[in-house]
Amino acid sequence: MMAKLKARKPKRPERPAPPIRAHELVRGVRLAPGWRLRLAGVGELDRAAELLALAHLRLDADVAATIRAGAHAEVLLAGLRDGKQALLYPIAEAAAAGDPNLAIVKMAALLVAVDRDDQIGGIVMTVPPGTVFAELYSKGFLPSHALLGLTLATKIQGLAVDPAARGSGLGARMLAQAWRLHHQLGAMVVYGQFPIRSGLAAYYAATPFEVLPERYGIMLEPILGRQAGIAPSAGEQIFARWSQSAFRAIDHV
Ligand SMILES: CC(C)(COP(=O)(O)OP(=O)(O)OC[C@H]1O[C@@H](n2cnc3c(N)ncnc32)[C@H](O)[C@@H]1OP(=O)(O)O)[C@@H](O)C(=O)NCCC(=O)NCCS
Fold first, then answer.
1. Is the pLDDT score of 203 beyond 80?
2. Residue 56 pLDDT > 60, yes or no?
3. What are phi and psi for residue 192, nearest 5 degrees?
4. 128 vs 79: CA distance, rounded Å
5. pLDDT attached to residue 5
6. Which numbered atom of ligand 1 lies nearest the CA of 173?
7. 172-195 pLDDT, tens per residue?
8. Is the minimum distance from the CB of 203 to ligand 1 under 6 angstroms?
């Protein structure tokens, strides 16, 4: 059964932010007074893993290896440097090499919130939605087209703030910057999920993200032109933000 949600009252519009430049993502985008958000460095992977564990997540070994190899978020940095169409070159290369993972791992961003002393107080990790790739591929999309689909949706894989740094809205500010980054790079939807009845529905609903009703997923057909979607994992609920209301299409999964 298909059920469309009613139009939602828009939240207070935010001021348009200037584009993020590649060097800012490396050195730090202003987050809050005394805080910057930047790509985690090679020497920070243990600390990053410690924070991800607060959200019951493990740091993906392929992403960690990519960071150690000096290729952290290389695809995203190319997009910030040369415009979102530049995302397509490494994607096309990976597709031509028959190894989509070559591009997928370089689209992950492990972003850390650092204070004036460069101490990490929070983390937000964004990844291309691998399940979307797998679904498109299984439905007969060419690997290059399936990879292209990955640029249109971004998953917030993890969000955590060190208990000592909580209470001043760092998490919401990291979410806002994650949205800004991927919106700039062409994502139509940025989404994540949290455990049902964890209390986090109220947390995400207070941000510009929308909390979908339990068991609701995101239909990507209006974006991709083929039936494909993002369903919540068992026991999880989705929060999402769309770049254009025209693409906001939610159906019961
Ligand atoms: C969720 C989290 C990132 C929020 O940290 P933060 O940005 O510093 O948030 P704040 O402490 O400023 O809290 C903002 C508001 O959300 C509420 N809140 C925070 N975490 C909450 C939770 N787990 N459940 C319900 N409410 C929560 C706070 O009570 C606060 O409400 P108030 O403004 O009325 O006082 C942090 O609590 C955390 O790292 N939790 C563990 C990891 C986690 O659960 N991550 C999300 C996984 S999907």
1. yes
2. yes
3. -155, -175
4. 14
5. 41
6. 7
7. 999 999 999 999 999 989 999 999
8. yes
The number of residues in the chain equals: 253
Q: Quote the Cα angle for 84-134-131, to 5°.
A: 75
Domains in the chain (CATH in brackets) are 22-189 (3.40.630)
Task: Extract the tokens encoding 66.
Answer: 């990519």
Burial 35-65 (b: 16+ CB within 10 A, else e): bbbbbbbeebbebbbebbeebebebbeebbe
Distance CA 135, CA 132 (A): 5
Cα–Cα distance for residue pair 127/107, rounded to 1 Å: 6
133 lines ligand 1 (CB under 6 A): no
| pTM as predicted | 0.91
Find out whether the beta carbon of 170 lies less than 6 Å from any atom of ligand 1.
Answer: yes
109's tokens: 């961003």
